[in-house]
Structures are given as structure tokens and as C-alpha cells.
Amino acid sequence: xxxxxxxxxxxxxxxxxxxxxxxxxxxxxxxxxxxxxxxxxxxxxxxxxxxxxxxxxxxxxxxxxxxxxxxxxxxxxxxxxxxxxxxxxxxxxxxxxxxxxxxxxxxxxxxxxxxxxxxxxxxxxxxxxxxxxxxxxxxxxxxxxxxxxxxxxxxxxxxxxxxxxxxxxxxxxxxxxxxxxxxxxxxxxxxxxxxxxxxxxxxxxxxxxxxxxxxxxxxxxxxxxxxxxxxxxxxxxxxxxxxxxxxxxxxxxxxxxxxxxxxxxxxxxxxxxxxxxxxxxxxxxxxxxxxxxxxxxxxxxxxxxxxxxxxxxxxxxxxxxxxxxxxxxxxxxxxxxxxxxxxxxxxxxxxxxxxxxxxxxxxxxxxxxxxxxxxxxxxxxxxxxxxxxxxxxxxxxxxxxxxxxxxxxxxxxxxxxxxxxxxxxxxxxxxxxxxxxxxxxxxxxxxxxxxxxxxxxxxxxxxxxxxxxxxxxxxxxxxxxxxxxxxxxxxxxxxxxxxxxxxxxxxxxxxxxxxxxxxxxxxxxxxxxxxxxxxxxxxxxxxxxxxxxxxxxxxxxxxxxxxxxxxxxxxxxxxxxxxxxxxxxxxxxxxxxxxxxxxxxxxxxxxxxxxxxxxxxxx
Length: 619
Prior knowledge:
single chain, 619 residues, mainly beta, Cytochrome Bc1 Complex, Chain D, domain 2, Lipocalin, five-stranded antiparallel beta sheet, five-stranded mixed beta sheet, 6 helices, 40 strands, globular, disordered N terminus
């Protein structure tokens, strides 16, 4: 049975996990390069098209660094697409696509004279993805509001080496900014100047946001990455950069991957675990699928695994696909999200994604409440039933599950918020475009608001934020992925926390004709312009970043735009690297004291690449 390729956005999910660059200029690779034939056979269908729906053009692909291309092809979601290649052929393909630097970047010459670091306690301004254990993404420690935000000035720019995708939210204290790159670098920077206090490269790849906790009485950074082929959680001394411990936490190898932020609660470190079967399934000869999501608790002082909760039972043989390849199930229900901690009820709240093979389970597309002490599931609420989906469904492939679901993950972290009367409420945004409000005691649905019709790339992606009685909801909704039911509704929305009633809306529009120019990753009219990054808030402001590279501040009560800044341009970095902004995704905007930080660049799904951390300060 033949299956046909359709040019679809979501193919990019499985194309490249990370882009890397030090100087944003594509080098010309000779036409007689031995990797060219392999590229044309294995990659060109999705990466050389001129239409806006195809994958990153070759000009963008040639901005990648070898380490991350190698990770994507050998351990990441592209591994099934290069099956059968010998080691030498794989190296030729990497050499054809990636660009090597003649002189590796070094921090020499960019080190601070004052290397002191304040971390922990009152000195911590942004300590984790959710800004607090409840994941409200509200910043109480800020002097920036609607009366003075116009006085923000760009004070320094740091160029992240060997990346063109920024995905790890920094930790910010009164005198330091801790930031990482997907290519495995970890930095402690001076908050006022951007010079380097210490740096290291503990991992091959760092995928999660950083969080600040404590190990044996010392302030410690926790994050997840890939080291030596293992899905590894690291604990790093925040003041020195020295490693305290590391732990392989994979449920499956290959198959597991770390994406959501890691959080600490007393003596436990809570680790969400995702799964890559969704991408592996594009290979029609892959036995789909065995990997699934889960959550692990580690001892904060040692890294010892204390308990594990699996989001599906172990997969068993189910049926053979049209090519005679054995299928397995159940699988999937990956945990992309950062856990929210409910100290009062001793619970953790996480969201899950779709199943990746038949049969679908009740733990997919769900909010799951887990006991902190034991790892037992106390309740779950399912947002969409029978959602089994993988990348094969995008190309009519034989590994597509029988359900062929809509791919409506809870990719945004759940929020434990308070209503206007002081009652606790769990809020969760879904790729379906629906915001759900739940009773934290039992998961009972309190209200449900459809903000948009959603899609596989639409609805709520990375996260919402709370500001007083308002839930700030970014909506991605690319038009090409809109489902039947109405037009896409990309933008930023404010909902009443008690009822889910719409209070205000900002609609994202594109006032130009987008062009898929194969010669530049930064077209005058970007293809992607919607809101995928997590929202945040401080004072009377709500913040959101668009895939067109614009950082916005809204009046949180009215939705009026009070400040915006276009980050998709070239910058002079304080650490000597060529630096360029691009699409804003994943962590979005962080505010700390009198400063505002934006990480810019996200090359997935046709958005613009970049490698910058921008630091603004009130004049």
C-alpha cells in the first residue's frame, strides 16, 4: 500500500529538534558534497519546497550545528527517517546540512570581574517556569507597570552559542541570570551587564527550562537534557556551576524525552517525562508504538528515584498495519507540561498529550492529579476522548492509529489559581482552544470556555497566566490547520477566572502577504505571526510574544496594547557572537524587578530562528 506525502506544518515537529548557529549566515555547500544525494533522498521532500507549508528551507537548515543535528538524527525524532544509513553516510548527511565553526566560541574576554552570585530565598525573582509552585506565571516582584513601561530600554543582548532555537526559560535573581542553550551550554550572567560569572557545558542538549531549588542546603539549578544518550536530570550548584548529581530518568530508551520544567517540593524533585513515538511512527516500518509519558519523583539531595507514575499500561501487540508491521498499544499520553504543586492537598497537577497508537486510553488529553508522597493517581479529567494520533496520520501512513484523533494535547501547564472569593481552582488550556476550570478536590468541571476551534497546531500551546481575576490566554491557531467549525482565532484573550466569560480580546492579524523566501529565514512578512509562547504577567500588565518576533505588553484589565518591541533583527551581543532574533515561542517574556527579559528565536513549524536573550531595563 502506498502512502502519499502532504505538505503540512506539523511535519516540522519531526524534522528538527533544534537549530544551531554562531554566525547567522548560511554557508554554501559544494554541489558535489557526498551528503547531497542522501539529503535529496531522505530530506528534500519536506525541506526544499517553495510553498509556505513545507519544512525549513535548506538556507535555514545550514545554520545548524553538528551536535544538535547529530542528536536529532541519532536519538531524536528524526532517527527513524535515517534508518539503514551507515555511520559514514550519516556523517556525510550531517556535514552537508550543518555548518562547522572554524574557531569555537569561548567565554574568554567576557567574564565578569565580580563573580558573586545571590540565589535562593528573597534574592530569587524568577525561580521556575510557573514563577511560583502554582504555575500562575504572575510576577509580584516587579516595578514595571503601564505607567512606566514606555521607559524600558534595551540594555544588553546575550547571544546563545550553537543554537537558532530558544526553549529554556532562565532563572533570574537580584544579581544573576542563569540561562542555557539547546546545545548544552549553561551560563550564569550578571543581571545588569550580561557578562559571564561562570559557564559550563554539562549536556549534549538541554531541552527543559531551568528551575532553582536546593541540594543539601546549597542553591541548585535543576534541568533536563541529553548526556551520553541518556535522558538526564541535572542538579548544578548555582553559585559555582559544579555538578551536584545527575540521574537518567528515561522510561524508554529510545522513546522518552524531557520537555517540561522540573520543580522541587521539599525533599522531592518532580520530573515530567514525554515520549517520541509520535514522530517515530512516520516510518512505515516502525513498530508503533511502545513508549509513553510519565512522572518521576527524585530525592532532591541524591537524585535517587522515589516513585514513578506511568500514563498508560505497558504496550502489547495489537494488530498488523497494511504493510504487515506489528502495531503496539496503548502508548503516548506524554507529559509535556511543568507540574503545578498543590501543597494544601498534597497533589501534583500535570497535563498529558494524545495517545500515539490504538487503543486510546482515558489518561490521554487529560489533567492528572498525583499524590506527592506516593505517586498514585487521585483523579483525572479528560478533555478529549479517543484521541490517538501520530505523525503517520499527516501523510496517510500505515502507522496512523484507527482513531486518527485531532491531536489535542494539554501542552500548557495547569495552573492552581484562586477565584475572586478565594477558592482554589485548577485551570488548563488545551490545543482544542478550550480552557477548562476544575475543582482541585475531585477534578469536577466547573466551567469550560471555547476560545477558539483549535487544531493540531492551534489553541493554547505553552501556557496561560493569571493577573487578578483575569486568565490570560494566548491562542496559536494557524489558518492552515483550522478544523471545521469556524475560522481560526489567533490572538490573546482575557477570561474571567470565576466564570470563564470573555473580558477582552486582541486578534492577531497579518497585514502583508507572507513569502516563503528560500534565501532568508527572516522574511519581511513572516509566515507565522500567531501566539504560541506562554503568557506572563506583572503589576497591571500581561505579556505575550508572537511568532512574528514581537513582544507585547497588554493592560491586563482591558487588553489594550501598551508596549511592543520587534525582536526579529540582528543585534550586537555582549559576548561577541553574531546574534539575531526571530519568532518568540516557549518561555515568552519574564519580568524581574525593573528589568524585562525576552528570549527570541524558534525555528520550528516555519517560524523564524534566533539565538538571543534580550535584557530591557527601566531608564
